[in-house]
Design brief:
Layout: H1 2-23, H2 26-29, H3 39-47, H4 51-63, H5 70-93, H6 96-121, H7 126-143, H8 145-154
Helix pairs in contact: 3-5, 4-5, 4-8, 5-8
């Protein structure tokens, strides 16, 4: 009798918990209307790309490189446009005050780091300044990758470095 009660309680508690856990998995979010886009899967299905080709297209979009295959170039252009649209949509959602607070926080961390490093070593921390100049510049350059990918993969005559593709 005790075993039966334990089984019934386990079922009554376990099934709702199991349903809640399975329902919160990310795989189900792709089935809901209005779910976040899946650019990797969309590109693979739309253009019939293999996983290796999809990785090449993603790399070209991220770094703004030119692809040799016409089909991959079309996929890169569409993927880059989708990426730019998603980025703009996220930017519109974010508050300008939040961005200002993030910038102010970054400047405060830089100033505190420079003060701490200078006080500790007794000299001006050029390595810290160089780091805080290089990484925002690198991130800004990386953010332009999709626009470069559209430019170099839309035009079939030239690439980003001025050489012709052949």
């Amino acid at each position: 009798m005790t075993g039966a009660v334990i089984v019934v309680v386990a079922i009554l508690l376990g099934l709702p918990l199991l349903a809640w856990w399975v329902g919160n998995r990310r795989v189900w979010s792709r089935l809901r209307p209005g779910a976040d886009p899946d650019p990797w899967g969309d590109a693979m299905r739309r253009f019939g790309l293999t996983p290796q080709e999809t990785a090449r297209v993603e790399s070209a979009v991220t770094w703004g490189r030119r692809l040799d295959d016409e089909r991959l170039r079309r996929a890169a252009v569409q993927w880059a446009r989708q990426h730019i649209e998603q980025t703009e949509a996220r930017r519109r959602i974010r508050s300008p005050w939040g961005r200002a607070a993030l910038l102010l926080g970054a400047v405060a961390v830089l100033a505190a780091g420079m003060y701490w490093m200078g006080a500790r070593r007794g000299e001006f921390p050029w390595d810290t300044v160089i780091w805080w100049v290089i990484w925002p510049a690198a991130l800004a350059w990386l953010a332009t990758g999709p626009r470069r990918a559209i430019r170099v993969n839309s035009d079939s005559g030239s690439s980003d470095d001025g050489t012709t593709a052949g």
